[in-house]
Amino acid sequence: MNLPAGTAKKAYVTRMFTGLSENYDLVNSICSLFIDHTWRIRAVRALGKASRGLVLDLCAGTLPLSFAFLKRARGTIVAVDISEGMLRTGIRALHRKYRPDRLGAVCGDGELLPLKNQTCDGAMVAFGIRNLADLDKGFRDVYRVMRPGARLVILEFSRPGNPLLAFPYRLYLKWILVPVGTLLTGDRDAYQYLVKSIEAFPAPEEVAGKLRKTGFSNISVIPLTGGIVTLYTAERI
Ligand SMILES: C[S@@+](CC[C@H](N)C(=O)[O-])C[C@H]1O[C@@H](n2cnc3c(N)ncnc32)[C@H](O)[C@@H]1O
Question: Which atom of ligand 1 is nearest to the CA of 86?
Answer without folding.
Answer: 27
